[in-house]
């Protein structure tokens, strides 16, 4: 039996992902989600709430060791699922492909499936609105570049297309769902969807008003400093940024050649390939939320349908973008199957191994890496995961890689904060080049020092 926990317990233990579920449940004046010094969203409020242990909070925080895990939730949500797999959970059917209808594929980061499904639920009259992430109209005034919004038309839903590697929270949108009757679909990363499912189990109102959940495959959550680093490296004043596109799409380039584009207030744009950014190697873990070190869900196992990128050939070289899709809800499965039959979706069925292969790096981090991290000494609330602690199976090389990744994740927050405070970007640049080069050599070249030296020189910019 785990004793009741408070929001402070989870935050101080490095297990808060910033979803905002606790703030939504509290529904108290002055209780809100705010950016901390590292550019991550954390709950704030009166100490009587923030420090008070609560059984309800302990059951509904997605990283609480007492919360029901993904296996339990999925079993109750999808008891008749045709397939069950240790990596991708329970599911009806898995697909790879893209939207053939209209311009969904062109306007999305990948194959356009997320926006299409959201639109189709609205077209079919199954929902009244979609809770999803959109760009802020005036980020400099709002103090953030992206936020959740409820969209009620197809045009509004389309504004949420493309990837957002930025901290967002559900508190305000859940409050709207509580106050405004209707049926809503919620789109989110795995831990956010888990938070919604836990909240639905706790509160019948949310069970009634959120009949559909759409999940996004996830590597990890970035902090808001990621955008600031983009600006530093492109020699752009942060206050001049009007819009951020993390994955600017070019059909003539492979989909996995990420390109970041910043649109400025004067309408001009600047671009840089992630490969040429000092912190652009996703696998190195720059600005990763510490809670992501203790997540074991890659593919949003508790969502009615979830979507990722098909990171295997020939799909990863197709600049138009290709989705891998896992369907769990029979209702959503019927919608998808009918659209395939009508030629609106170009999807081929695949098995669980194919889905796992497309997210191989994510599963290594969230399964074997997590098993190793669970053996490390740490303070505060101890995570309880579906993966068992294991420090014996991994090779020495893999252990070093996970140690370096953890060092980069934690260090990037601190070093960037220090350089930001002093307004000395070069301090951060030098550190980032060094650790990125070391990680590159370890992860891709068996620790070859000449490769580290070569990468360090490439990142000089």
Distance between the termini: 54 Å
| Secondary structure category | alpha+beta
Give the neighbour order of strands across the main sheet: 7-6-8-9-13-14-5-15
Shape: globular
Largest sheet properties: 8 strands, mixed
The number of distinct helices, counting runs of at least 4 residues, comes to 19
Mean pLDDT: 95
What's the helical proportion of residues? Answer: 25-40%
- DSSP, total strands: 15
The gyration radius over C-alpha positions equals 21 Å
Number of domains: 2
Low-confidence stretches: none
Write structural notes for this entry.
It contains 19 helices and 15 strands. With 461 residues, it is of the alpha+beta class. It folds into two domains: 7-222 and 287-362, no CATH class; 363-458, no CATH class. The strands form four sheets. An eight-stranded mixed β-sheet has the order 7-6-8-9-13-14-5-15, sandwiched between helices. A three-stranded antiparallel β-sheet has the order 10-11-12, with helices on one face. A two-stranded antiparallel sheet has the order 1-2. The protein is globular and about 55 Å long. The mean pLDDT is 95.
């Amino acid at each position: 039996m785990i004793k009741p926990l408070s929001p402070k317990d989870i935050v101080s233990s490095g297990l808060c992902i910033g979803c905002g579920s606790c703030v939504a449940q509290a529904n108290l004046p002055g209780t809100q989600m705010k950016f901390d010094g590292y550019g991550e969203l954390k709950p704030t409020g009166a100490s009587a709430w923030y420090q008070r242990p609560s059984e309800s909070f302990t059951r509904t925080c997605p990283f609480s060791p007492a919360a029901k895990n993904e296996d339990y939730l999925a079993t109750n949500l999808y008891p008749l699922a045709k397939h069950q797999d240790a990596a991708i959970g329970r599911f009806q059917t898995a697909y790879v492909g893209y939207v053939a209808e209209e311009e969904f594929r062109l306007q999305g980061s990948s194959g356009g499936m997320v926006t299409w499904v959201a639109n189709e639920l609205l077209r079919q009259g199954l929902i009244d609105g979609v809770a999803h992430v959109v760009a802020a109209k005036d980020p400099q005034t709002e103090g953030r570049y992206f936020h959740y919004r409820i969209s009620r038309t197809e045009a509004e839903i389309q504004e949420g297309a493309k990837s957002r590697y930025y901290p967002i929270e559900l508190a305000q949108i859940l409050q709207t769902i509580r106050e405004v009757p209707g049926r809503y679909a919620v789109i989110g990363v795995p831990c956010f969807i888990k938070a919604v499912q836990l909240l639905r189990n706790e509160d019948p109102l949310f069970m009634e008003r959120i009949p559909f959940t759409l999940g996004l495959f996830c590597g990890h959550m970035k902090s808001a400093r990621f955008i600031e680093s983009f600006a530093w490296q492109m020699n752009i004043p942060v206050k001049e940024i009007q819009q951020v596109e993390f994955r600017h799409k070019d059909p003539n380039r492979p989909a996995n050649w990420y390109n970041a584009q910043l649109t400025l207030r004067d309408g001009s744009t600047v671009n840089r390939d992630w490969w040429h950014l000092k912190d652009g190697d996703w696998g190195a873990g720059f600005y990763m939320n510490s809670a992501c070190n203790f997540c074991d869900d890659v593919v949003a196992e508790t969502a009615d349908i979830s979507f990722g990128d098909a990171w295997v050939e020939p799909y990863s070289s197709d600049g138009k973008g290709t989705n891998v899709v896992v369907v769990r809800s029979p209702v959503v499965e019927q919608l998808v199957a009918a659209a395939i039959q009508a030629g609106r979706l170009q999807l081929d069925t695949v098995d669980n191994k194919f889905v796992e292969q497309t997210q191989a790096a994510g599963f290594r981090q969230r399964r074997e890496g997590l098993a190793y991290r669970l053996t490390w000494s740490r303070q505060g609330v101890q995570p309880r995961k579906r993966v068992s602690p294991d420090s014996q199976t991994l090779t020495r090389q893999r252990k070093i890689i996970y140690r370096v990744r953890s060092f980069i994740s934690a260090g990037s927050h601190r070093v960037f904060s220090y350089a930001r405070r002093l307004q000395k970007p070069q301090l951060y640049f030098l550190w980032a080049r060094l650790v990125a080069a070391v990680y590159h050599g370890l992860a891709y070249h068996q620790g070859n020092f000449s490769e580290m030296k070569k990468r360090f020189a490439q990142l000089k910019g």
